Hints:
Elements: H1 7-33, H2 71-92, H3 100-130, H4 140-149, E1 158-163, E2 167-172, H5 176-179, H6 183-204, E3 207-214, E4 219-225
Antiparallel strand pairs: 1-2, 2-4, 3-4
Amino acid sequence: MYSNIGPSHYIFYASKHRNYQWLVALIEKFNALLPKTPFQQHLALKTYFPFQSLGLSKPYVLDNILDDTPVDSFLIQLDSELEKLEEIFFKHIPASHPEIKTIASALESQSVSFGRVLAQEYLISLYKQTRQTQIPSNELYNAIAQIMEGGTVFNFPLVLRSIHHKTIEYEHKSCPHRMYADKKAAVFACHMKSAFYKGFINALTNIQSFKRQNFSDYCLDKIQLT
Length: 226
Protein backbone atom coordinates (compact mmCIF):
# COMPACT_ATOMS: atom_id res chain seq x y z
CA MET A 1 0.00 0.00 0.00
CA TYR A 2 2.80 2.41 0.90
CA SER A 3 5.24 1.59 -1.89
CA ASN A 4 7.08 4.90 -1.42
CA ILE A 5 8.45 3.85 1.98
CA GLY A 6 12.16 3.16 1.70
CA PRO A 7 14.82 1.84 4.11
CA SER A 8 15.84 5.38 5.07
CA HIS A 9 12.29 6.13 6.26
CA TYR A 10 12.38 3.14 8.61
CA ILE A 11 15.77 4.21 9.97
CA PHE A 12 14.57 7.76 10.56
CA TYR A 13 11.30 6.71 12.17
CA ALA A 14 13.07 4.16 14.40
CA SER A 15 15.45 6.81 15.74
CA LYS A 16 12.51 9.12 16.54
CA HIS A 17 10.66 6.25 18.21
CA ARG A 18 13.69 5.57 20.40
CA ASN A 19 13.95 9.28 21.16
CA TYR A 20 10.32 9.19 22.28
CA GLN A 21 11.02 6.14 24.45
CA TRP A 22 13.97 7.94 26.05
CA LEU A 23 11.77 10.97 26.72
CA VAL A 24 9.02 8.80 28.23
CA ALA A 25 11.60 7.15 30.51
CA LEU A 26 12.58 10.62 31.77
CA ILE A 27 8.95 11.67 32.16
CA GLU A 28 8.11 8.56 34.17
CA LYS A 29 11.14 9.14 36.41
CA PHE A 30 10.15 12.79 36.87
CA ASN A 31 6.54 11.88 37.70
CA ALA A 32 7.75 9.36 40.28
CA LEU A 33 9.90 12.05 41.92
CA LEU A 34 7.22 14.77 41.81
CA PRO A 35 3.85 12.97 41.79
CA LYS A 36 1.96 16.16 42.65
CA THR A 37 2.98 17.86 39.39
CA PRO A 38 2.91 15.02 36.81
CA PHE A 39 3.57 15.58 33.13
CA GLN A 40 1.16 13.70 30.85
CA GLN A 41 1.32 15.46 27.48
CA HIS A 42 3.47 12.72 25.95
CA LEU A 43 0.39 10.52 25.71
CA ALA A 44 -0.80 12.59 22.74
CA LEU A 45 1.98 11.09 20.58
CA LYS A 46 1.64 7.53 21.85
CA THR A 47 -0.47 6.52 18.82
CA TYR A 48 2.50 7.28 16.55
CA PHE A 49 5.05 5.54 18.78
CA PRO A 50 3.20 2.41 19.93
CA PHE A 51 6.00 -0.17 20.04
CA GLN A 52 7.67 -1.49 23.19
CA SER A 53 10.84 -2.73 21.50
CA LEU A 54 13.77 -0.58 20.33
CA GLY A 55 13.33 -1.54 16.69
CA LEU A 56 16.78 -3.07 16.21
CA SER A 57 16.28 -6.83 16.32
CA LYS A 58 12.92 -6.47 14.58
CA PRO A 59 12.13 -3.40 12.45
CA TYR A 60 9.05 -1.34 13.24
CA VAL A 61 6.01 -1.64 11.00
CA LEU A 62 4.93 1.72 9.59
CA ASP A 63 1.86 0.76 7.56
CA ASN A 64 -0.59 1.08 10.46
CA ILE A 65 0.87 4.39 11.62
CA LEU A 66 0.97 6.40 8.41
CA ASP A 67 -2.03 8.41 7.25
CA ASP A 68 -2.72 9.78 3.77
CA THR A 69 0.10 12.32 4.10
CA PRO A 70 3.17 11.63 1.92
CA VAL A 71 5.66 9.69 4.01
CA ASP A 72 8.36 12.39 3.95
CA SER A 73 5.93 15.07 5.08
CA PHE A 74 4.49 12.77 7.74
CA LEU A 75 7.86 11.96 9.27
CA ILE A 76 9.06 15.58 9.19
CA GLN A 77 5.87 16.68 10.97
CA LEU A 78 6.21 13.87 13.49
CA ASP A 79 9.79 14.93 14.19
CA SER A 80 8.60 18.50 14.74
CA GLU A 81 5.87 17.40 17.17
CA LEU A 82 8.35 15.31 19.13
CA GLU A 83 10.74 18.25 19.36
CA LYS A 84 7.92 20.47 20.68
CA LEU A 85 7.02 17.85 23.26
CA GLU A 86 10.61 17.67 24.45
CA GLU A 87 10.80 21.43 24.92
CA ILE A 88 7.48 21.54 26.77
CA PHE A 89 8.65 18.80 29.13
CA PHE A 90 11.99 20.41 29.91
CA LYS A 91 10.24 23.75 30.48
CA HIS A 92 7.89 21.94 32.87
CA ILE A 93 10.77 20.94 35.17
CA PRO A 94 10.88 23.59 37.93
CA ALA A 95 14.41 25.02 37.98
CA SER A 96 13.67 26.67 41.33
CA HIS A 97 12.58 23.46 43.05
CA PRO A 98 14.56 22.87 46.28
CA GLU A 99 15.35 19.31 45.11
CA ILE A 100 16.31 20.25 41.55
CA LYS A 101 19.83 18.79 41.93
CA THR A 102 18.37 15.46 43.01
CA ILE A 103 15.85 15.57 40.16
CA ALA A 104 18.55 16.43 37.61
CA SER A 105 20.84 13.66 38.89
CA ALA A 106 18.04 11.07 38.67
CA LEU A 107 17.12 12.12 35.12
CA GLU A 108 20.77 12.07 34.07
CA SER A 109 21.19 8.53 35.44
CA GLN A 110 18.03 7.49 33.60
CA SER A 111 19.41 8.94 30.36
CA VAL A 112 22.73 7.12 30.73
CA SER A 113 20.93 3.88 31.54
CA PHE A 114 18.66 4.16 28.50
CA GLY A 115 21.70 4.77 26.28
CA ARG A 116 23.36 1.64 27.63
CA VAL A 117 20.29 -0.49 27.03
CA LEU A 118 20.08 0.82 23.46
CA ALA A 119 23.75 0.01 22.85
CA GLN A 120 23.35 -3.51 24.25
CA GLU A 121 20.36 -4.13 21.98
CA TYR A 122 22.34 -2.80 19.03
CA LEU A 123 25.28 -5.09 19.79
CA ILE A 124 22.97 -8.10 20.05
CA SER A 125 21.53 -7.22 16.64
CA LEU A 126 25.04 -6.68 15.23
CA TYR A 127 26.24 -10.05 16.57
CA LYS A 128 23.33 -11.87 14.95
CA GLN A 129 24.31 -10.37 11.58
CA THR A 130 28.12 -10.34 11.72
CA ARG A 131 29.20 -12.32 14.82
CA GLN A 132 30.96 -9.18 16.03
CA THR A 133 30.80 -8.57 19.79
CA GLN A 134 31.97 -4.96 19.57
CA ILE A 135 31.65 -2.30 16.92
CA PRO A 136 34.94 -1.34 15.20
CA SER A 137 36.04 2.20 16.04
CA ASN A 138 35.98 3.20 12.37
CA GLU A 139 32.26 2.38 12.25
CA LEU A 140 31.33 4.22 15.45
CA TYR A 141 30.28 7.49 13.86
CA ASN A 142 28.00 5.79 11.34
CA ALA A 143 26.34 3.85 14.16
CA ILE A 144 25.77 7.07 16.11
CA ALA A 145 24.34 8.87 13.09
CA GLN A 146 22.00 6.02 12.20
CA ILE A 147 20.83 4.77 15.60
CA MET A 148 20.65 8.07 17.47
CA GLU A 149 19.68 10.49 14.71
CA GLY A 150 18.09 8.48 11.91
CA GLY A 151 20.84 8.75 9.32
CA THR A 152 20.77 11.58 6.80
CA VAL A 153 17.42 11.12 5.09
CA PHE A 154 16.07 14.61 5.74
CA ASN A 155 18.20 17.24 7.45
CA PHE A 156 21.68 15.82 8.13
CA PRO A 157 21.28 16.25 11.92
CA LEU A 158 24.94 15.47 12.54
CA VAL A 159 27.85 17.11 10.76
CA LEU A 160 31.14 15.26 10.93
CA ARG A 161 33.89 17.74 11.78
CA SER A 162 36.88 15.40 11.98
CA ILE A 163 37.66 11.73 12.31
CA HIS A 164 41.13 10.38 13.04
CA HIS A 165 42.54 7.16 14.42
CA LYS A 166 41.85 8.20 18.03
CA THR A 167 39.39 11.12 17.82
CA ILE A 168 35.89 11.71 16.43
CA GLU A 169 34.23 15.14 16.44
CA TYR A 170 30.75 15.95 15.13
CA GLU A 171 28.36 18.88 15.39
CA HIS A 172 24.68 18.67 16.31
CA LYS A 173 22.57 20.68 13.89
CA SER A 174 19.40 19.88 15.83
CA CYS A 175 20.83 20.58 19.27
CA PRO A 176 18.28 22.03 21.76
CA HIS A 177 20.46 25.16 21.94
CA ARG A 178 19.65 25.75 18.28
CA MET A 179 16.05 24.50 18.23
CA TYR A 180 14.45 25.61 21.52
CA ALA A 181 13.01 29.07 22.13
CA ASP A 182 13.41 28.62 25.89
CA LYS A 183 17.17 28.78 26.53
CA LYS A 184 17.03 27.46 30.10
CA ALA A 185 15.11 24.42 28.90
CA ALA A 186 17.66 24.03 26.09
CA VAL A 187 20.58 23.85 28.53
CA PHE A 188 18.83 21.22 30.65
CA ALA A 189 17.69 19.21 27.62
CA CYS A 190 21.12 19.25 26.01
CA HIS A 191 22.69 17.97 29.21
CA MET A 192 20.22 15.07 29.34
CA LYS A 193 20.74 14.24 25.67
CA SER A 194 24.48 14.31 26.23
CA ALA A 195 24.02 11.73 29.01
CA PHE A 196 21.92 9.61 26.62
CA TYR A 197 24.72 9.72 24.01
CA LYS A 198 27.39 9.05 26.63
CA GLY A 199 25.61 5.93 27.88
CA PHE A 200 25.17 4.67 24.33
CA ILE A 201 28.74 5.31 23.19
CA ASN A 202 30.41 4.05 26.37
CA ALA A 203 28.55 0.75 26.11
CA LEU A 204 29.16 0.40 22.39
CA THR A 205 32.94 0.42 22.21
CA ASN A 206 36.06 1.17 24.22
CA ILE A 207 36.55 4.92 24.56
CA GLN A 208 38.76 7.04 26.76
CA SER A 209 36.38 9.98 27.07
CA PHE A 210 33.21 11.59 25.77
CA LYS A 211 32.71 15.34 26.03
CA ARG A 212 30.05 17.71 24.75
CA GLN A 213 31.06 21.33 24.19
CA ASN A 214 28.36 24.00 24.15
CA PHE A 215 28.68 26.98 21.84
CA SER A 216 26.25 29.84 21.23
CA ASP A 217 23.82 27.97 18.99
CA TYR A 218 25.16 24.44 18.56
CA CYS A 219 27.00 21.66 20.35
CA LEU A 220 30.03 19.60 19.45
CA ASP A 221 30.71 16.07 20.69
CA LYS A 222 34.30 14.91 21.00
CA ILE A 223 35.04 11.21 21.45
CA GLN A 224 38.55 10.13 22.44
CA LEU A 225 39.14 6.49 21.62
CA THR A 226 41.45 4.18 23.57
